[in-house]
C-alpha cells in the first residue's frame, strides 16, 4: 500500500455532495487552498466499521472553517452521513478518514471572498503511524527547530493546513537524523507538542501535559485524559519547561494517527515505557472499538 501514490488508489471519494471515482476527484492548479493554505481538515479513524468520535471531528471541521472565515456548505449531519456511507462503499472496517474543506479557484490572490467553498472526504487503509515494533519500545523524538506560534499571529485553534508547514519541516529534519518525530516548543520556549500529536509525561504517578493555549486540544488527548481519570490518575495541565524533562519517568504521544504511542527518548532525555503508558495504550485500544462489537463478545 505504501508504494502506491495516493492519486492512484482505487475506490471513491465524496466531493461536494457526490461520490466520484478516486481518480476523478481533482482540483485546478490555481486553487486558492493550494496557494494560500485556505483549507481546514480532520484526521479520523474507523475501527470495526465505525468512525471514532465522528461527530466531534465534524464539529471541529466546521469550527475550524469559521476561524478561517468561511462556512462549509454542508451540515455536520450531511458530512457525518457521507463519511459513514463512504466507509461502507470503500469496504473497510479499519481505516483512516480525511475530510477537508477549502477555497476554490474562482479568484486568485490574497483576497478570495467570492471563491466557492469545497468539501471532500477520502477514506483509505493506513497502517500504524509509527513502526509497530519501535512503538512498543518507545519512539525517539528530536528537538524541533521551529516553534508553535503565538496565537496572536496564527489561527492556532483551527486545524488549518497552513499550520502544518513547520510540522512537515520538523518531522523531515527529525527523520533525516534517525528519529521518528520531533517535539516542538511554543513561542515562549515551553513544551508544546509533537509534529502531529499531543504529549504527556508521567511523574510520581501523575500525568503532566502542556496547557493547549497555542496548539490543538486534540480529541484523542481529551479521550486519554478521560481514560486516565477513570483510572484515578491525577491530571496536571500546566506550562512545562524543557529542563523539566529530566525529572519525568514516562512520556507518550496521543493523536488520531499516533493513538497512544510511548516515547523512550527526546533529545538527551530518556524515559521508561512504564505501566501508566502501557495501561492507557490498552485502555484507548478498548475505547475505540465499537460498543456493539464488545457487547457481542
Question: Summed up, what is this model?
Answer:
With 297 residues, the protein is α+β, with helices and mostly antiparallel strands. The protein contains eight helices and 16 strands. The chain has two domains: 6-124, D-amino Acid Aminotransferase, Chain A, domain 1; 132-287, D-amino Acid Aminotransferase, subunit A, domain 2 (D-amino Acid Aminotransferase, Chain A, domain 2).
| Share of residues in strands | 25-35%
Poorly predicted spans: none
Task: Classify the fold: give the CATH topology of the largest domain.
Answer: D-amino Acid Aminotransferase, Chain A, domain 2
Average pLDDT reading: 95
What's the N-to-C terminus distance?
31 Å
Order of helices and strands: EEHEEEHHEEHEHEEEEHEEEEHH
* Computed Rg: 19 Å
- CATH H level, superfamily name of the largest domain: D-amino Acid Aminotransferase, subunit A, domain 2
Commentary on this structure:
Helices cover 28% and strands 27% of the residues. By secondary structure, it is of the alpha+beta class. It folds into 2 domains: 6-124, Aminotransferase class 4, branched-chain amino acid transferase, N-terminal domain (D-amino Acid Aminotransferase, Chain A, domain 1), CATH 3.30.470.10; 132-287, D-amino Acid Aminotransferase, Chain A, domain 2, CATH 3.20.10.10. Helix 2 crosses helix 3. The strands form 2 sheets. Strands 8, 9, 10, 11, 12, 13, 14, 15 and 16 form a 9-stranded mixed sheet that branches. Strands 1, 2, 3, 4, 5, 6 and 7 form a 7-stranded antiparallel sheet that branches. Strand 12 (206-210), helix 6 (219-230) and strand 13 form a beta-alpha-beta unit. It starts with 11 loop residues before the first strand and ends with a helix. It contains 8 helices and 16 strands. 37% of the residues are buried. It has helices at 32-36, 54-67, 76-90, 132-137, 165-176, 219-230, 275-287, 291-296; strands at 12-15, 18-21, 39-41, 44-47, 50-51, 95-103, 117-124, 139-143, 181-185, 191-194, 198-203, 206-210, 235-238, 250-255, 259-266, 269-270.
Amino acid at each position: 500500500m505504501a508504494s502506491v501514490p495516493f492519486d492512484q488508489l482505487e475506490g471513491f471519494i465524496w466531493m461536494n455532495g457526490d461520490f466520484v471515482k478516486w481518480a476523478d476527484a481533482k482540483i485546478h492548479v490555481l486553487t486558492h487552498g493550494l496557494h494560500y493554505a485556505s483549507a481546514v481538515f480532520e484526521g479520523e479513524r474507523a475501527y470495526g466499521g465505525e468512525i471514532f468520535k465522528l461527530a466531534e471531528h465534524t464539529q471541529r471541521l466546521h469550527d475550524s472553517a469559521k476561524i478561517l472565515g468561511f462556512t462549509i456548505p454542508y451540515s455536520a449531519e450531511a458530512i457525518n452521513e457521507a463519511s459513514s456511507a463512504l466507509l461502507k462503499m470503500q469496504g473497510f472496517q479499519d481505516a483512516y478518514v480525511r475530510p477537508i474543506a477549502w477555497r476554490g479557484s474562482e479568484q486568485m490572490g490574497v483576497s478570495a471572498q467570492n471563491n466557492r467553498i469545497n468539501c471532500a472526504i477520502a477514506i483509505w487503509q493506513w497502517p500504524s503511524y509509527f513502526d509497530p515494533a519501535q512503538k512498543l519500545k518507545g519512539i525517539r523524538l528530536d528537538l524541533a527547530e521551529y516553534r508553535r506560534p503565538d496565537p496572536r499571529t496564527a489561527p492556532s485553534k483551527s486545524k488549518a493546513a497552513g499550520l502544518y508547514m513547520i510540522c512537515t519541516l520538523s518531522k523531515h529534519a527529525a527523520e533525516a537524523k534517525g528519529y521518528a518525530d520531533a517535539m516542538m516548543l511554543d513561542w515562549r520556549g515551553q513544551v508544546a507538542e509533537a509534529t502531529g500529536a499531543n504529549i504527556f509525561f508521567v511523574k510520581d504517578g501523575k500525568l503532566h501535559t502542556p496547557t493547549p493555549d497555542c496548539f490543538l486540544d486534540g480529541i484523542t488527548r481529551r479521550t486519554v485524559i478521560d481514560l486516565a481519570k477513570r483510572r484515578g490518575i491525577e491530571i496536571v495541565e500546566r506550562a512545562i519547561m524543557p529542563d523539566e524533562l529530566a525529572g519525568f519517568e514516562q512520556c507518550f504521544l496521543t493523536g488520531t494517527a499516533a493513538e497512544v504511542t510511548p516515547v523512550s527518548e527526546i533529545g538527551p532525555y530518556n524515559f521508561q515505557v512504564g505501566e501508566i503508558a502501557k495501561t492507557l495504550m490498552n485502555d484507548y485500544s478498548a475505547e475505540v472499538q465499537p460498543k456493539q462489537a464488545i457487547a457481542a463478545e
